[in-house]
UniProtKB/TrEMBL annotation:
It comes from Tardiphaga robiniae. It comes from the Bacteria. Belongs to the ABC transporter superfamily. GO terms for molecular function: ATP binding; ATP hydrolysis activity; branched-chain amino acid transmembrane transporter activity. Keywords: Amino-acid transport, ATP-binding, Nucleotide-binding, Transport. This is ABC transporter ATP-binding protein. Coiled coil: none annotated. One of its GO terms (biological process) is L-amino acid transport. Involved in beta-(1-->2)glucan export. Transmembrane domains (TMD) form a pore in the inner membrane and the ATP-binding domain (NBD) is responsible for energy generation. Pfam families: ABC_tran.
Amino acid sequence: MTTSATGLELRDVVAGYGGHPILHGVSFSVRAGETLVVVGPNGSGKSTLMKTAVGLLRPISGQVLFGEANVTTLGAPARAARGLANVPQEANIFRNMTVLENLQVGYEFVASHSAPSFGKRLDAVLDLFPEIRAKLRSTAGYLSGGQRQMVAMAAALMPEPSVLALDEPSAGLSPRNAEILFEVIGRVAASGVTLLIVEQNTRLGLGAADHGVVLVGGRIRLAAPAAEVLADPDIRRLYLGGA
Ligand SMILES: Nc1ncnc2c1ncn2[C@@H]1O[C@H](COP(=O)(O)OP(=O)(O)O)[C@@H](O)[C@H]1O
Ligand SMILES: [Mg+2]
């Protein structure tokens, strides 16, 4: 699955709730075809950043650029129609529908008449998620946590987006299942999709990324190639439990 690769950029974004800022001037860009992971402690503003990036939250100031376009004032459906897919942290599947129905909803939510057929997209997506190929007729809510995350990602990928945003994909998973999920995320990245991931598991997240951003208290503390962030002594001491 190769798509026209489009990057995503935040420029000096101030965002929060009820006029109270949580993000205090955040800037970074994910280049087309690359994976950027935002790590940081609980409450540091990661989900707020993600909501701003995908159009669920209008920033107080600053800009969001998707490819060449300034999408700051566009809501999430309009950004989705342009190829920005989003898997939120919670409630990201229809639990009482089958896996196949979830994929149909994902496709119909965005796909235009010029899009590849449902069958073609289903094949391409299931190649990335062989674990759920055998589960198409299962009720999504009865799958394991890791499989439910795969269904959520697969549904978001059905309309062939250029950028996929994932908020805490490993949340609630056992260490082993989180590892498996990040292997799958690596496959999605290798397929050419640009990834913006917010992840509390610093080691797993950065291990899957080209670039890392450390968000603390709504401010970027460090932005560098992921390997450099992983090797940073302060980051190791604070978030990786090592000296
Ligand atoms: N809908 C909301 N209304 C008001 N405050 C919120 C809302 N969502 C998050 N917050 C606050 O914003 C801060 C950052 O939250 P969040 O972006 O969810 O952090 P993270 O995802 O890094 O854990 C927290 O102090 C949280 O209480
Ligand atoms: Mg969060």
